[in-house]
Amino acid sequence: MVIIKPLKALVCLAILSTLIFGAAVWAYNGADISGGTGLQGEALSADPRVRSGSPQRSLAIPQSSRSNSPHRKSSSSRSHAVVSDPVRVGNPGTLQYSYPGPQVYPPQGYPAPLAGPAGCGQGPQNLLCSSGWNFSVPWYVPYLPRIGCKQFQISAKLWYATLNHSTIVWGPNFFGGPGTELDLQTDLGLSKHQYIAEYEARCQFRQNWGLRFNFMPLAFKDNFTPTTPPGFFFGNAFYPAFVPIVSRWHRNIYRWDLVYDWYQAKHAVSSIFAGYSLYDDKLEVSDVLQSRSRSRGFGLAYAGGSIDRVIRNLGCGGAAASVHCKASAQFLEGFFGWDGVATGRISVPMDCGRFGYIEAGWRWMVLERYYPTDADKTSLDGLTGSIGFVF
């Protein structure tokens, strides 16, 4: 629709570099927190988190390596390790000793999760990168399901938007002054209500960090063939009165942002985010004699915050009701806008730390720009609903 400018190419290159960096840190699982290598290093670790009641590790020692001399102490006594009695395993000439390993605690606000259901392949969970659904929390304790480390979230949304207070001025008149200020719905005949789809994907590459992408296509067209007002100017052209016109407006919005969960607790999560959005915008007005099309692309920076909070658990099945609120502001290239959404959500758990959800609420979006010969203001609001899945 619009030829991509060099600035857009640089922005896309920066986004690609960010994704490559995210893929590099994806495979990083953190430094080894053990006190050292071997039996003696872990036994002598000064880490206070090492407990005797933690999971046991085993060390197999061939029986032939043990000395039977009464004047020689065994290697196990010199290591000062707390070991259990030897147990014969496998080969009759092999003895197995067990010793405690380090215990890792979850971040503050997270109860220690248990292993997932059988068949998930999780084994003992890494508590520093815990699952999004915590199976160890009793059903009567309010707990907010959230995306976990190295999980993905996808959702599809439908917005029944109402076009409000939408005006446009484009191009000068015959005398060099600003053109006619037109209302997209009243003067150009665009439909007042429209269903708008939105698609969102998120990748949580760290416990508190995630990457998110949104795509929203807008398509408004006239729902009848109107009679124009008593003549108007659009795109340096004059449209005479009483001549039927046809109007179409298309706008595709692409958004990338980096999300940081600065607050995490059992009952709530609060996040801040910042990113970049690309707009491909086209407005076309034509009659039987002429046609003018304003086609352009522009990029905006934006930043905002969100909060999710559980209301209550729904029965013994693990489902939960929560609220989700998000707002942001965007700017650059002479534009300024703001948008937000407030919804209620119901989450239903699945196996292996996955869950699905549905939500419904209210959404609004405002974007405006004022120049003498290029003014644009669009305001939309209405009911919204979505369905999503975290895996």
Descriptors:
single chain; 391 residues; mainly beta; three-stranded antiparallel beta sheet; elongated
Helical coverage, percent range: under 10%
Widest sheet: strand order?
A: 4-6-7-10-11-12-13-14-15-16
Name the average pLDDT. Answer: 74
Q: Structural class, judged by helices and strands? A: mainly beta
Tally of distinct domains: 2
Please report the total strand number as a whole number: 16
Low-confidence segments, given as residue ranges, are: 23-90, 93-132
Shape: elongated
- First CA to last CA: what distance? 35 Å
From the 3D coordinates, which CATH architecture of the largest domain would you assign?
Beta Barrel
In N-to-C order, the SSE pattern is: HHEHEEEEEEEEEEEEEEE
Query: How can the largest sheet be summarized?
Result: 10 strands, antiparallel, barrel
Classify the beta-strand content into a percent band.
over 45%
Please name the CATH topology of the largest domain: Lipocalin
- Looking at this structure, what is the CATH superfamily of the largest domain? OMPT-like
Our count of helices gives: 3
For the record, the CATH class of the largest domain is Mainly Beta
Rg, please?
Answer: 31 Å
What does this 3D model show about the protein?
This protein is mainly beta and 391 residues long. The chain has helices at residues 6-26, 38-43, 75-78; strands at residues 56-62, 87-88, 94-100, 151-170, 182-183, 193-204, 209-221, 232-234, 237-239, 246-264, 268-286, 291-314, 319-332, 335-349, 355-369, 374-390. The strands form 3 sheets. It has a 10-stranded antiparallel β-barrel. Strands 1-3-2 form a 3-stranded antiparallel sheet. The radius of gyration is 31 Å and the shape is elongated. The model is unreliable at 23-90 and 93-132 (pLDDT under 50).
